[in-house]
Amino acid sequence: MDQLAPLTAFDLTRPAEQRCPLVFASPHSGRDYPLEFVTASRLDAQALRRSEDAFVDDLFAAAPKLGAPLLAARFPRAWCDANREAWELDPGMFDGPLPAWVNSGSPRVGAGLGTLARVVASGEPIYRRRLAFSEAEARVRHCWEPFHATLSELLEETRGRFGACLLIDCHSMPAQPGPAHEQPHFILGDAHGTACAPRATRAIEAALQRMGYRVRRNDPYAGGYITRHYGRPRERQHAIQIEIARGLYMDEARIERHVGFDRLRADLGAVIATLAEADWSFL
User: Fold this and answer.
1) Residue 205 · residue 217 · CB < 8 Å
2) Alpha helix locations (H) across 4-144?
3) Which residue in 93, 82, 163, 81 sits closest to 125, CA to CA?
4) Backbone angles phi, psi at 246, to 5 degrees
5) Distance CA 22, CA 34 (A)
6) How far apart are the first and last CA of the chain?
7) CA distances from 202 to 166, 167, 195, 254 (A)
8) Contact status, residue 231 vs residue 239, Cβ threshold 8 Å
9) Are 189 and 222 within 8 A, CB to CB?
């Protein structure tokens, strides 16, 4: 096993009884940074955390108590990104040629944000050296694959029990361009209606708006790999991405919760409760 890999790839919190066809996932809130990774990086630990969707798993912590499972990655996005294909890799990061089957031409790879990121979200390079392909392979095998195997099992179990399922893929976002009073608090990404039934998107949008939040759809976040891969409405498997404005609950520079965190967590608990009690028979 790769000695740098976190010992546990994810936390799965199941409800005592699953009472609704909802599954929550937080693929970017992991914060178990291997010491050797931090030591070998050009960046310090704080800078590496700029790629995190910090505390998002905590914001959705009410889900299991309300009848829905919550899957949260423990490995950080800068180490291995669960919201990418398994093998989106930048050839320039490695000390030798990559296998021909690797996807090295995606826009995400070009931006430095493949399965193994070349840069953190703010653009600074992560590594001092080139990597061996075996390092990428170990991270995919020990982090990406267990996370997705468990997520697939959760969705299959849920669909088997309820006849359909809705995956809510939980993320956070930096401040958006424009006047502060016009910036969205949430962006819902349903791949422009292809990953999730429009009625489900409307239900989540309405629940957030009733709490007083500004909600936008698909711009600029229409959904990443998880939403697009698992969102298969024709198979009665739906997926939607939720992006939360970080300014609502944290100091982005310090990566610390601020006084808004508890309120937002309570509001999201109320939203989850509404969704858990909703009629999802239309899925």
Assistant:
1) yes
2) 35-40, 45-48, 56-59, 107-110, 133-139
3) 93
4) -65, -30
5) 32
6) 41
7) 13, 15, 13, 34
8) yes
9) yes
Full domain range(s) for residue 237: 10-73+140-276
Bridge-based pairing state of the strands 70-73 and 250-251: unpaired
For residue 30, CA distances in Å to 27, 55, 70 come to: 7, 9, 13
85 in a domain, yes or no?
no
For residue 2, the model assigns a pLDDT of 44
pLDDT below 70 — which residues of the chain? 1-7
Question: What pLDDT is recorded for position 7?
Answer: 59
What pLDDT shows up at residue 3? 44
For residue 196, which of 242, 245, 243 has the smallest C-alpha distance? Answer: 242
Q: For residue 261, what are the contacts with CB-CB under 8 A and spacing of at least 6?
A: 55, 59, 249, 250
Total domains in the chain come to 1
Residue 110 within a domain? no
Q: Is residue 124 part of a domain?
A: no
Task: Give pLDDT, residue 179.
Answer: 84
Does a structural domain hold residue 108?
no
Q: What are 165-183's pLDDT values in tens digits?
A: 999 999 999 988 888 888 9
Do residues 13 and 68 touch, judged by C-beta distance below 8 A?
no
Q: Distance between CA atoms of 31 and 205, rounded to whole angstroms?
A: 29
Return the residue matching tokens 């050797």: 36
CA distances 168 to 32, 96, 100, Å, are 23, 38, 33
Give dist(CA 263, CA 266) in Å, integer. 5
The CATH code of the domain that includes 149 is: 3.40.630.40
